[in-house]
Specification:
- The chain has a domain of 85 residues: Thrombin, subunit H (Beta Barrel), CATH 2.40.10.
- Helix content is 49%, strand content 14%.
- It is of the alpha+beta class.
- It contains 21 helices and 17 strands.
- The longest helix has 26 residues.
């Protein structure tokens, strides 16, 4: 029991101090993360000095060394990440100052807004075009760059007032599409700045006012803003946890990017960014050597001395991958693109013109792919191999694991949870990585041995999401891992069949196995796409309004939520008897509606009868004014309850 005391002391100390330490202050971050780094280095020195066997050709020795080599990579990535997260940035005050300067000018910088599209449905790209045309900045031109060469989109753009551009071929995919847009727009508008939007991302009306002012600083080549989403990603949706858990990208955009920005190594993520045209032309446009052309552009700019500035404000909202297949396609492309950069002369690890911080920032990003995902699989296999064969990954005693690993594990776990505002919880992070691991391992192989000629895989958006989709190719692997874990534990609990005779090591691997089982079960739930209940995402608005009944008789009401297809309305303590009504929607107008059902004595679900003349106004209201319908804050306790209910077959209520 005494060996647990240091870990318990660390846990209690952090429980007391972390809630009162200011997360935004560098000194507090250095104190907390430095403590985690120190304990991690203590654990690592123990691993190196005490636990490594002699290197021989035996399976035991080779397995222990392979495990250790990947552990070195994982720890290196962890330590780099902790150091970078010791600082953070908040550029909102600078954005305010930029707005004040812009207001004083007679002539504002001009902006070309590029919407890159390929195969998205009208319902997807419509929101983006209407939103872009609704920017309240006075000098901009909207260009729809269509690699799908769709006549209906050309007609739609002409109707709305956006320029439509296509090209003879789709060479170099998105990067080539944008570069073609650069050439075409130069002959016409030739704006000072280029704003880039994916086809499913809708900008808020003040987007350009908040970002353009940064370009008064000549060293800034790109301003990147976060990607937020108006629908749950597959993990949120399939766990039914979108009210209590954040999307997977929140940790990166809310925590990692501000930290990278504080070191001047934030990178461009494509959509929701603004780029200086002059610098873009200086480097011959977006690079075409990688399918992650946006990140590569950042490092090409850095070689010229131009930095990417990151503004952590919710200035656009987009469509997260709606199904697991699309989610994996997107992550696979990101992995492949990062590894493609390793093969280029301009690779940040050895290209000229970059400082050590910039090189290390790329190394960190690379390790997140090439080491993290193999490490996830090794951590699943290690206790299984031990329970079935007695061959260990770490040669030690159970008490030493508690003495060296446990304090570091607790400190890292709690410090990252603290600095990330609970947006990075180890069980959820490991579960989502497990969902991706087999796809990413294939991308790692492609990126290291066949990096080019793979083509650009577009993330499909829209389509029918009304059915359950079971991803058997992933699920059967998870089932096998689950059954092997249970079998390994069961065998060693029966004395006459037990493989392990070391009680302490068995307990350590028993804990490890139970931890893995929880991760496997969560991953298995994510591997089953649940049907989306609505075709249109609903946004909580809570706005007072008036419902018009028969004739001109009105009734005060409260609009609880709103979508392009309908609304949930709370009445003023009176039952609704009429089936056909009209609803005054603030900022949109009076809409004809049909009552679908009575939710209770005070609330009704209504469907809009015809939005033909009000559709653009409704799009502007829902998507450009900052409404949100998914959780932006993690609630760990409620998330735990939801996940346990899902694991044990109960639908959360």
């Amino acid at each position: 029991m005494s060996v647990l005391l240091p870990t318990l002391f660390i846990f209690l100390m952090l429980i007391i101090w972390l809630p009162i330490l200011p997360k935004e202050k560098t000194w507090a971050r250095i104190l907390v993360l430095g403590f985690a780094i120190a304990l991690t280095l203590r654990y690592f020195s123990w691993r190196v000095m005490i636990t490594l066997p002699s290197l021989t050709m035996s399976f035991q020795s080779l397995w222990a060394w392979v495990f250790f080599i990947f552990e070195i990579g994982a720890i290196t990535g962890l330590l780099i990440g902790l150091v970078f997260q010791s600082r953070t940035s908040n550029r909102s005050e600078e954005a305010d100052q930029g707005v004040a300067r812009l207001i004083q000018r007679d002539v504002l910088p001009s902006v070309d807004v590029f919407i890159a599209t390929y195969n998205e449905e009208l319902e997807v790209v419509e929101r983006t075009i209407v939103g872009a045309l609704s920017l309240n900045y006075p000098r901009y031109t909207v260009w729809v760059l269509d690699d799908g060469k769709r006549e209906w989109l050309r007609e739609f753009c002409a109707k709305k007032g956006a320029h439509y551009v296509t090209r003879p071929n789709n060479l170099h995919a998105k990067a080539g599409n944008i570069n073609n847009g650069l050439a075409v727009s130069k002959a016409k508008s030739n704006a000072d700045l280029i704003m880039v939007l994916d086809a499913d991302f809708v900008p808020r009306s003040n987007f350009l006012w908040r970002t353009v002012g940064f370009f008064d600083d000549e060293k800034i080549g790109i301003v990147q803003t976060p990607q937020y989403f108006f629908n749950p990603d597959p993990a949120q949706a399939n766990l039914l946890a979108d009210r209590f858990w954040v999307d997977e990208q929140r940790y990166f955009f809310d925590i990692i990017q501000p930290s990278r920005d504080a070191w001047d190594v934030a990178f461009c993520c494509g959509t929701s960014s603004v780029v200086r045209r002059r610098y873009l032309e200086e480097v011959s446009g977006f690079p075409t050597d990688s399918v992650t052309e946006d990140m590569l552009l950042t490092f090409v700019f850095l070689q010229k001395g131009y930095i990417t500035r990151y503004l952590r404000e919710r200035l656009s909202v987009g469509l997260a991958p709606e199904g697991l297949k699309e989610y994996l396609t997107q992550r696979s492309r990101w992995c492949l693109g990062t590894l493609q950069i390793l093969w280029l002369k301009s690779c940040p690890l050895w290209a000229s013109g970059l400082n050590m911080t910039q090189r290390i920032s790329f190394l960190w990003q690379t390790l997140n792919w090439v080491v993290t995902f193999p490490w996830v699989l090794l951590c699943l296999l290690a206790p299984l191999i031990f329970l079935f064969t007695g061959i260990y990954a770490i040669e030690t005693q159970g008490s030493d694991i508690i003495a060296y690993f446990a304090p570091a594990f607790v400190a890292v776990l709690m410090s990252i949870s603290w600095v990330s505002q609970n947006k990075n919880l180890i069980i959820m992070t490991d579960a989502t990585r497990l969902v991706m691991v087999f796809t990413i391992l294939n991308s790692i192989y492609q990126g290291l041995f066949r990096p080019f000629g793979q083509g650009f895989k577009v993330t499909a958006k829209g389509g029918d999401r009304s059915k359950v989709v079971i991803h058997w190719q992933l699920l059967w692997k998870l089932i096998v891992l689950f059954l092997l874990s249970l079998t390994g534990i069961t065998i060693n609990l029966i004395p006459e069949y037990a493989v392990i005779d070391n009680h302490d090591l068995f307990l350590a691997n028993l804990f490890w196995s139970f931890f893995n089982i929880i991760i496997i079960l969560i991953a298995a739930l994510i591997a089953i796409d649940l049907p989306r209940q609505r075709n249109q995402e609903r946004f909580a608005v809570h706005e007072p309004s008036k419902m018009i009944l028969d004739g001109d008789r009105g009734m005060l009401c409260l609009i609880k939520d709103l979508s392009l297809s309908g609304a949930r309305v709370q009445l003023d303590n009176k039952p609704l008897l009429s089936e056909s009504v009209q609803l005054d929607v603030p900022g949109v107008g009076r809409l004809s509606c049909k009552i679908n059902r009575h939710i209770n004595t005070q609330e009704v679900a209504i469907q809009f009868s015809d939005l033909t003349f009000n559709r653009d106004a409704m799009i502007r209201k829902l998507y450009t004014q900052g409404y949100s319908n998914v959780s932006l804050r993690a609630k760990p306790l409620k998330l735990f309850i939801i996940v346990m209910q899902r694991i044990f077959g109960r639908d959360p209520t």
